[in-house]
Amino acid sequence: MADKVEIIGGRSLHGNVAIFSDGFGAEARYHRGGSKITVSAWKRGRGFSSYGIFIFIGVFFLLDIIRGLFMVFDSTLPRVSTQPGLTYWATNIGIMMVAIAWIGIRIAKWHGAEHMVIQAYRTEGKSGLEEARRFSPVADKCGSRFLFAYLLLMVIRAVLLPPAWEWLTALILLIVFFVKPLRPLFTENPVVIFFSRLLQRHITARQPGDVELLTAHCALLGLLKAHGHEFQFPDGVEYEFTE
User: Fold this and answer.
1) Which site among 33, 119, 154, 179 is 20 to 30 Å from 78 CA-CA?
2) What is the pLDDT of residues 146-185, one digit of tens each?
3) Residue 234: inside a domain
4) 149 lies in which domain range?
Protein backbone atom coordinates (compact mmCIF):
# COMPACT_ATOMS: atom_id res chain seq x y z
CA MET A 1 0.00 0.00 0.00
CA ALA A 2 1.34 3.44 -0.97
CA ASP A 3 2.30 5.84 1.81
CA LYS A 4 0.24 8.91 2.64
CA VAL A 5 1.12 11.82 0.36
CA GLU A 6 2.21 15.14 1.87
CA ILE A 7 0.18 17.83 0.12
CA ILE A 8 1.93 21.19 0.05
CA GLY A 9 -0.76 23.31 -1.59
CA GLY A 10 -3.32 23.87 -4.29
CA ARG A 11 -4.57 26.38 -6.82
CA SER A 12 -8.10 27.12 -7.99
CA LEU A 13 -9.50 28.83 -11.06
CA HIS A 14 -12.97 28.79 -12.58
CA GLY A 15 -13.56 25.20 -13.73
CA ASN A 16 -10.06 24.16 -12.74
CA VAL A 17 -8.48 22.81 -9.53
CA ALA A 18 -4.84 21.76 -9.08
CA ILE A 19 -3.21 20.11 -6.06
CA PHE A 20 0.53 19.70 -5.43
CA SER A 21 2.95 17.56 -3.48
CA ASP A 22 6.74 17.90 -3.41
CA GLY A 23 7.09 15.39 -6.23
CA PHE A 24 3.99 15.76 -8.41
CA GLY A 25 1.18 18.03 -9.46
CA ALA A 26 -2.32 17.15 -10.67
CA GLU A 27 -4.96 19.29 -12.31
CA ALA A 28 -8.65 18.56 -12.92
CA ARG A 29 -10.65 20.54 -15.49
CA TYR A 30 -14.40 20.61 -15.77
CA HIS A 31 -15.56 20.97 -19.38
CA ARG A 32 -18.97 22.58 -19.17
CA GLY A 33 -19.94 21.90 -22.79
CA GLY A 34 -19.42 18.16 -22.53
CA SER A 35 -20.06 17.98 -18.77
CA LYS A 36 -16.91 15.91 -18.33
CA ILE A 37 -13.74 16.13 -16.25
CA THR A 38 -10.20 15.57 -17.49
CA VAL A 39 -7.32 14.99 -15.08
CA SER A 40 -3.63 15.43 -15.88
CA ALA A 41 -0.71 14.71 -13.55
CA TRP A 42 2.97 15.44 -13.96
CA LYS A 43 6.30 15.46 -12.18
CA ARG A 44 7.03 18.78 -10.49
CA GLY A 45 9.16 21.17 -12.49
CA ARG A 46 7.00 20.94 -15.63
CA GLY A 47 4.39 23.54 -16.40
CA PHE A 48 2.57 25.87 -14.01
CA SER A 49 2.68 24.92 -10.35
CA SER A 50 2.49 26.53 -6.93
CA TYR A 51 6.22 27.31 -7.22
CA GLY A 52 5.33 29.32 -10.32
CA ILE A 53 3.26 31.57 -8.08
CA PHE A 54 6.25 32.07 -5.76
CA ILE A 55 8.46 32.95 -8.73
CA PHE A 56 5.91 35.46 -10.05
CA ILE A 57 5.55 37.10 -6.63
CA GLY A 58 9.31 37.06 -6.16
CA VAL A 59 9.91 38.88 -9.46
CA PHE A 60 7.20 41.41 -8.57
CA PHE A 61 8.82 42.15 -5.21
CA LEU A 62 12.30 42.26 -6.76
CA LEU A 63 11.19 44.90 -9.27
CA ASP A 64 9.62 46.86 -6.40
CA ILE A 65 12.93 46.71 -4.51
CA ILE A 66 14.89 48.00 -7.51
CA ARG A 67 12.40 50.82 -8.11
CA GLY A 68 12.48 51.82 -4.45
CA LEU A 69 16.28 51.85 -4.28
CA PHE A 70 16.45 54.12 -7.33
CA MET A 71 14.09 56.52 -5.57
CA VAL A 72 16.29 56.51 -2.47
CA PHE A 73 19.74 56.87 -4.03
CA ASP A 74 19.19 58.69 -7.33
CA SER A 75 19.14 62.42 -6.54
CA THR A 76 17.88 63.27 -10.06
CA LEU A 77 14.52 61.65 -9.35
CA PRO A 78 11.81 63.87 -7.87
CA ARG A 79 11.40 63.50 -4.14
CA VAL A 80 8.17 61.99 -2.90
CA SER A 81 6.20 63.29 0.03
CA THR A 82 6.89 61.78 3.43
CA GLN A 83 3.31 60.52 3.76
CA PRO A 84 1.29 58.52 1.21
CA GLY A 85 -1.53 60.59 -0.24
CA LEU A 86 -5.17 59.84 -0.97
CA THR A 87 -4.42 58.79 -4.55
CA TYR A 88 -1.80 56.30 -3.38
CA TRP A 89 -4.16 54.57 -0.96
CA ALA A 90 -7.20 54.79 -3.23
CA THR A 91 -5.28 53.14 -6.09
CA ASN A 92 -3.90 50.31 -3.99
CA ILE A 93 -7.15 49.61 -2.16
CA GLY A 94 -9.15 49.87 -5.40
CA ILE A 95 -6.98 47.31 -7.18
CA MET A 96 -7.23 44.91 -4.22
CA MET A 97 -11.01 45.27 -3.98
CA VAL A 98 -11.48 44.56 -7.69
CA ALA A 99 -9.25 41.48 -7.47
CA ILE A 100 -11.05 40.19 -4.35
CA ALA A 101 -14.49 40.77 -5.90
CA TRP A 102 -13.45 38.89 -9.05
CA ILE A 103 -12.26 35.96 -6.94
CA GLY A 104 -15.51 35.98 -4.98
CA ILE A 105 -17.63 35.84 -8.12
CA ARG A 106 -15.60 33.50 -10.31
CA ILE A 107 -13.47 31.30 -8.07
CA ALA A 108 -14.88 31.13 -4.52
CA LYS A 109 -16.76 27.82 -4.90
CA TRP A 110 -13.81 26.14 -6.64
CA HIS A 111 -11.49 27.51 -3.96
CA GLY A 112 -13.75 26.15 -1.21
CA ALA A 113 -13.87 22.72 -2.87
CA GLU A 114 -10.08 22.63 -3.05
CA HIS A 115 -9.85 23.36 0.67
CA MET A 116 -12.40 20.70 1.60
CA VAL A 117 -10.75 17.78 -0.22
CA ILE A 118 -7.25 18.77 0.95
CA GLN A 119 -8.35 19.12 4.58
CA ALA A 120 -10.15 15.77 4.48
CA TYR A 121 -7.02 14.03 3.21
CA ARG A 122 -4.62 15.83 5.54
CA THR A 123 -6.81 15.21 8.60
CA GLU A 124 -8.19 11.71 8.01
CA GLY A 125 -6.05 10.37 5.19
CA LYS A 126 -9.19 9.79 3.12
CA SER A 127 -9.93 10.90 -0.43
CA GLY A 128 -13.66 10.19 -0.67
CA LEU A 129 -16.32 12.75 -1.56
CA GLU A 130 -18.38 12.03 1.55
CA GLU A 131 -15.39 12.64 3.82
CA ALA A 132 -14.67 15.94 2.05
CA ARG A 133 -18.27 17.14 2.51
CA ARG A 134 -17.78 17.11 6.30
CA PHE A 135 -15.06 19.77 6.15
CA SER A 136 -15.31 23.54 5.93
CA PRO A 137 -14.34 25.50 2.80
CA VAL A 138 -12.42 27.82 5.16
CA ALA A 139 -8.84 26.64 5.78
CA ASP A 140 -6.16 27.97 8.12
CA LYS A 141 -3.45 27.13 5.58
CA CYS A 142 -4.99 29.17 2.76
CA GLY A 143 -2.60 31.28 0.70
CA SER A 144 -4.57 34.42 1.61
CA ARG A 145 -2.39 34.53 4.73
CA PHE A 146 0.35 36.00 2.55
CA LEU A 147 -2.02 38.75 1.39
CA PHE A 148 -2.68 39.84 4.95
CA ALA A 149 1.01 39.61 5.82
CA TYR A 150 1.66 42.00 2.94
CA LEU A 151 -1.13 44.36 4.04
CA LEU A 152 0.18 44.33 7.60
CA LEU A 153 3.67 45.29 6.43
CA MET A 154 2.19 48.00 4.18
CA VAL A 155 0.47 49.60 7.17
CA ILE A 156 3.64 49.40 9.28
CA ARG A 157 5.66 50.95 6.47
CA ALA A 158 3.11 53.71 5.92
CA VAL A 159 3.26 54.67 9.60
CA LEU A 160 7.02 54.43 10.12
CA LEU A 161 8.62 55.03 6.71
CA PRO A 162 8.12 57.37 3.72
CA PRO A 163 6.87 55.83 0.43
CA ALA A 164 10.43 55.92 -1.00
CA TRP A 165 11.22 53.07 1.37
CA GLU A 166 8.43 50.84 0.13
CA TRP A 167 11.18 48.56 -1.18
CA LEU A 168 11.86 47.52 2.42
CA THR A 169 8.40 45.92 2.64
CA ALA A 170 9.01 44.06 -0.60
CA LEU A 171 12.45 42.90 0.55
CA ILE A 172 11.07 41.50 3.83
CA LEU A 173 8.32 39.59 2.04
CA LEU A 174 10.74 38.32 -0.60
CA ILE A 175 12.92 36.85 2.15
CA VAL A 176 9.89 35.37 3.94
CA PHE A 177 8.62 33.75 0.73
CA PHE A 178 11.86 32.01 -0.14
CA VAL A 179 13.37 31.23 3.29
CA LYS A 180 10.98 28.51 4.42
CA PRO A 181 11.85 28.55 8.16
CA LEU A 182 10.82 32.24 8.31
CA ARG A 183 7.34 31.79 6.79
CA PRO A 184 5.64 30.84 10.09
CA LEU A 185 6.42 34.36 11.38
CA PHE A 186 3.55 35.50 9.17
CA THR A 187 1.67 32.39 8.02
CA GLU A 188 1.09 31.10 11.58
CA ASN A 189 0.51 34.50 13.12
CA PRO A 190 -2.90 34.42 14.93
CA VAL A 191 -3.85 37.88 13.64
CA VAL A 192 -3.06 36.94 10.04
CA ILE A 193 -4.98 33.64 10.34
CA PHE A 194 -8.00 35.41 11.85
CA PHE A 195 -8.29 37.88 8.97
CA SER A 196 -7.58 35.13 6.44
CA ARG A 197 -10.54 33.16 7.80
CA LEU A 198 -12.69 36.27 7.67
CA LEU A 199 -11.82 36.91 4.03
CA GLN A 200 -12.47 33.29 3.07
CA ARG A 201 -15.74 33.04 4.98
CA HIS A 202 -17.29 36.10 3.33
CA ILE A 203 -15.64 36.35 -0.09
CA THR A 204 -13.00 33.94 -1.40
CA ALA A 205 -14.05 30.42 -0.29
CA ARG A 206 -17.75 29.53 -0.51
CA GLN A 207 -19.57 26.24 -0.03
CA PRO A 208 -19.15 24.38 -3.35
CA GLY A 209 -21.76 22.58 -5.39
CA ASP A 210 -21.48 18.99 -6.61
CA VAL A 211 -19.55 19.93 -9.76
CA GLU A 212 -16.89 21.97 -7.94
CA LEU A 213 -16.39 19.34 -5.25
CA LEU A 214 -16.20 16.49 -7.76
CA THR A 215 -13.59 18.40 -9.79
CA ALA A 216 -11.41 19.02 -6.71
CA HIS A 217 -11.90 15.38 -5.70
CA CYS A 218 -10.60 14.25 -9.10
CA ALA A 219 -7.57 16.53 -8.78
CA LEU A 220 -6.72 14.84 -5.48
CA LEU A 221 -7.20 11.39 -6.99
CA GLY A 222 -4.91 12.36 -9.87
CA LEU A 223 -2.18 13.39 -7.44
CA LEU A 224 -2.52 10.20 -5.41
CA LYS A 225 -2.45 8.06 -8.56
CA ALA A 226 0.78 9.80 -9.64
CA HIS A 227 2.24 8.66 -6.29
CA GLY A 228 1.30 5.04 -6.98
CA HIS A 229 -2.07 4.75 -5.24
CA GLU A 230 -4.50 2.42 -6.99
CA PHE A 231 -8.21 3.19 -7.37
CA GLN A 232 -10.85 3.95 -9.98
CA PHE A 233 -11.84 7.42 -11.11
CA PRO A 234 -15.55 8.25 -11.30
CA ASP A 235 -17.23 7.25 -14.57
CA GLY A 236 -16.43 9.50 -17.51
CA VAL A 237 -13.25 11.01 -16.04
CA GLU A 238 -10.23 10.96 -18.37
CA TYR A 239 -6.74 10.69 -16.83
CA GLU A 240 -3.24 11.12 -18.26
CA PHE A 241 0.23 11.27 -16.72
CA THR A 242 3.15 13.18 -18.24
CA GLU A 243 6.74 12.39 -17.33
Assistant:
1) 154
2) 766 666 666 666 666 665 566 666 676 667 666 777 777 7
3) yes
4) 7-242
